[in-house]
Write a structure and sequence with these properties.
Radius of gyration: 27 Å
Distance between the termini: 61 Å
Strand content: 5-15%
Shape: flat
Number of strands: 7
Largest sheet: 3 strands, antiparallel
Structural class: alpha+beta
Order of helices and strands: HEEHEEEEEHH
């Protein structure tokens, strides 16, 4: 069954158009549009609808819908979330109609275009001027395909902890202990004899801290 599915995928890729990605077979790989929220009080800080007009300073930090923008006064300063101030006249008119797409990269081996995400690469991890070979060409260029397992110097448990990882790890341990106790009762055996998942570690590798000031209606 697995070979049958692989064969079907190969046949589909052989029929893709010249402008399609040779890895996924799609011409356009779109992302979910960003969700924008108004910071004004007239609309109750609601989400900005798709294709609706909004006003901003050029970033997604502070956004006003048309209704809340109309309530802003020309002669009053507007306090932004980062602590800076601006005026109504400095806000730019924009439209919530963006359709972000995955960027392309050309293979230096077969001259085909592939999506960066399909090739598991991006501009941040490649060195400037470095040649790029798509996975298909990379396999052809390898003289010896006997790969050795990577040697990992650090394990998850060796990474730095934080309050969030400690809280998540503690919650996981409590839930697992509860499940073990229920399983032992169901099987009629001591909880020590229940097969357990050992060595589980949770670490936060990336996070974004964003401060949002909640002000009175008169400050908008």
């Amino acid at each position: 069954e697995y070979r049958k599915v692989c064969e079907e995928i190969r046949n589909e890729l052989d029929q893709v158009g010249p402008d399609a990605c040779t890895l996924c077979g799609l011409e356009r790989r779109k992302f979910q549009p960003p969700v924008l929220y108004c910071v004004g009080m007239s609309c109750g800080m609601q989400k900005v609808k798709r294709n609706a007009v909004y006003y901003t300073m050029g970033s997604f930090q502070n956004i006003w819908c048309e209704k809340c923008y109309g309530k802003l006064k020309e002669d009053e300063s507007i306090m932004l979330d980062d602590g800076s101030e601006t005026r109504k006249s400095r806000l730019h008119r924009s439209k919530n109609d963006s359709n972000p797409e995955e960027t392309w990269i050309r293979c230096d081996g077969c001259d085909s275009n592939v999506h960066q995400i399909c090739a598991l690469t991006n501009d941040r991890i490649r060195n400037p001027g470095e040649k790029f070979f798509c996975p298909k060409c990379d396999l052809k260029n390898r003289k010896d395909f006997h790969l050795t397992p990577a040697k990992y110097i650090r394990r998850a448990e060796d990474l730095e902890k934080c309050e969030m990882s400690d809280s998540m790890e503690e919650g996981l341990t409590k839930n697992l202990d509860k499940e073990y106790a229920e399983k032992a009762e169901e099987l009629g055996i001591p909880v020590e004899e229940v097969t357990k998942a050992d060595g589980l570690s949770i670490r936060v590798l990336s996070h974004l801290a964003k401060k949002h000031s909640v002000r009175d209606e008169g400050d908008y």
